[in-house]
Fold:
Amino acid sequence: MVNLVLGGALLLMMLGLASVVLAGRAGASKIVYGASALLSALVAVVGLVFLLSLAPSSTLILPIGLPWIGAHFRLDALAAFFVIVVGFGSAIISIYSIGYGRHEAEPWRVLPFYPSFIGAMLLVVIADDAFTFLLSWEVMSLLSWALVLAHHREQAVRSASLVYLIMAAMGTMALILAFGLLAGPVGGYDFDHMRSVAESPLLGAIVVILMLVGAGSKAGIVPLHVWLPQAHPAAPSQVSAMMSGIMTKVAIYGFIRVTFDLLGGAAWWMPEIVLAVGAVTAVMGVLYALMQHDLKRLLAYHTVENIGIIFIGLGLAMAFRHYDMNAAAALAMVAALFHILNHSVFKSLLFLGAGAVQNATGSRDMEEMGGLIHRMPVTSVVFLVGSIAISALPPFNGFVSEWLTFQAILLSPDLPDWGLRILTPGVGGMLALAAALAAACFVKVYGVVFLGRARSSQAKTAQEVDRWSLAAMAVLAVVCLLAGIFPGFVIDALSPVSHALVQSSMPVQTTDPWLTITPVASGRSSYNGLLVLLFIAGSASFAAWAIHRFASRGLRRAPAWDCGFVLDAPNTQYGAASFAQPIRRTFGTAVFRVVEHVSMPRPGSTAPAKFRVTMRDPVWDGFFVRIGGGVGWLADKANRLQFLTIRKYLSVVFTLLVLLLLVLTLWN
Amino acid sequence: MELIFNLLVQGLQMFLVVAIAPLVAGVTHRMRARLLRKKGASIWQPYRDLLRLMRKEVVLAENASWLFRAVPYLVFAATWVAAALIPTFATGLQFSWSADLIAIVALLGSARFFLALAGMDVGTPFGGLGSSREMMIAALAEPAMMLTVFSLALLAGSTQLSTVVEYLAGPGVGLRVSLGMALVALVIVALAENARIPVDNPSTHLELTMVHEAMVLEYSGRHLAMIELAAALKLVLYLSLIAALFVPFGIAAPGQGVGPHLLGLLYYLVKMLVGAVALATFELSIAKMRVFRIPELLGAALMLSLLGTLLLFVSRSL
Structure:
């Protein structure tokens, strides 16, 4: 079945080539996006059939690529799961784009890259040797870079894409080194060979760290996330959805493939690093998000947060696997995989909604929106669903995966390692903090964008988006609900994946009465989203019915009360910055060194009072600016190498060659 | 037979919490008034208030959306479902497996999420102020609550509330450091979540420090009744939770007959009475905090609950 996925990926790439010719014509975007939707959906169906039929992994070797390796492709449970994530997400986003793509001023800057980008992501997922993997990875990076540059006339877009390009290059370099270590001195670059070799713990640890840098920078872990909130919002909205919702997942696929599948074992302290990175990423991501007032940038920072949550699950799975606690490892793994699926769904939904809002109001600045619930009734409902889901509130899907992660954390006191036992309660607290802050952040987003009064004339006259876009967002919202109330089916479908990665799977869920999920044992913990939904719906309708029937149904519209006096100016409402002010004061002073400057004019003066907030980005200022300085210093020093004599050059080359040969001999 | 009995217990307790919620609020009010040497309103006053509000017509702000009208019912329903899953006088609740303690915390989170959204809906400064401060308080209170849940879950080996309560009611728990820390943290969280002094003042409408009342300022009529009832229900929920976890004596175990259940009911009512009186006394003996001092209080709760959990990670016997 791998040939079907490969065929789909290649067809998508050819569609990209074809649209180079097509793109200028009228109606081209409909054809290209429609065909992308169809192909991605077919590929997703292949993945789903493969995963559910529990078929043995299917492989294919093509005589292209490096001469003595060839190009290996393989579809196993893990790859199939990610094929579903990529295929389903791309299909829905493409349907959205059929309508949304009409607004593109220069479609030829988007259309050729869009389907090829989907194809490249699929190739990464099914690649089965290092060369094919890295090549597809680079193609994926470059195509997404080209898509980020679609609106290249804006200065912010150009600088964002430059940062992205540098980070992507650095990430790939880390990946090349990681695969080089895995291939060993004999240079076995196909994954089968890497699986069969058991690395020493130290080597394994180095590989994991390189993967954290390589795949983690693409996924957006702190402190390597800096490019993500610049590049994701700069792209057209459907591409932002694709990069945030799907490409970050492909990056996580790379991490899982190497650390859980290819790597024999890593040092005992590796899970602690992954856990700490995940927890810091989750909290920092949401704190950054709270400080934003650009809607898409805020969503991009939430991607960082959710990547952190996924890495917490992965870190727990590594820890449990290291100490042979297989059932717990399966729980943590399934929690991470479930969150990967959930995040790809609700983050795509939110970005598509943000695109709709941007289209309707002509702005990404939340301070210019407001009251859109009256102007965009359908978008406001689906965006609400996405907001509830990402805030991890029942009965939607985001809650289920975070609940599973909490359950995995509660199993960690049984770990024999003291470091982990002291770390995990803190990680649990940070996860809870991130979830609570995410809820605060989405009250801010929804309250400022959709509720209240319009803050600009565009927001006042906004129009609902087209039907294709609405249909696509509605499908994603329904999936959010279904995965939240029938989580048992998802967990059961994931069991072959967790079995392949941690050699055990969670107990079968769908046989439980009322589709309750019980991750460990029935007396220990259980959750039933369906019943919770029914209870809430039942008691809410009962209360509404009883009151309307027996008490009163009278209703009168009147001006808002607000203790007797409402100013007409819409900027007297709470906006994005003012909503975040209490949290900015509580957390921001420590993390972002927030200073609020108030300049009060003297009494009697007619000058306005001024309020200004300064904030510093601890990662950018504390880490990247310094690294940039270091690179500059090094470049100055290395400049001397440019003016050597030919003898000196030859001796440098010779020394280096000897050194490399020495290393190779020692390694062997 | 046991199924029917459990269903009966579940149904009874579901209506019990709603029925006594205004009473608990009434007792607290009355007690506060008495301690201030005032006469105070009757303890039945909240019922009358609710009835009056329900019968009045709703005065809706002109630009209020459908969300504003749906939220009171959603908030009430989510709080009610959460309250119905807390063991009050018996642990044999038929539906306790449908949501564990983590899910109950999240259900309350959903209720808060919707209420905060409603505060933003009309677009008045007071509503936004309330929502923004409520979410800031929740951002600290919820992790503290979650870590308290962790300590209890680690002790009992389950996040299932009925199982936890049965374990705590049974022998062999004794005095534990971690439980003490969890209790202090939970009390602080309960005060913050229920908008009580020192975090918020429930008896004021026109003060810049108010949080909850500012958020629901635009509500009137039956909508306000629902929100008031939900607030009273939430108070009962937290009192019941503290009672069930830390003073679980008298609570009837599943399989026991009618007698122990009636006795449990009696105990429960007494516990609620004591809780309401204690709350009123505490509120009168302490001053309201400035808004930006609240994070310090909640941070203390967070640290205490983290420490409690950490102790249990180190050793199950602490």
Summary: The radius of gyration of chain B is 19 Å. Chain B touches chain A through 90 residues (CB under 8 Å). The longest helix of chain B spans residues 2-35. Residues 4 and 94 of chain B are 9 Å apart (CA to CA).
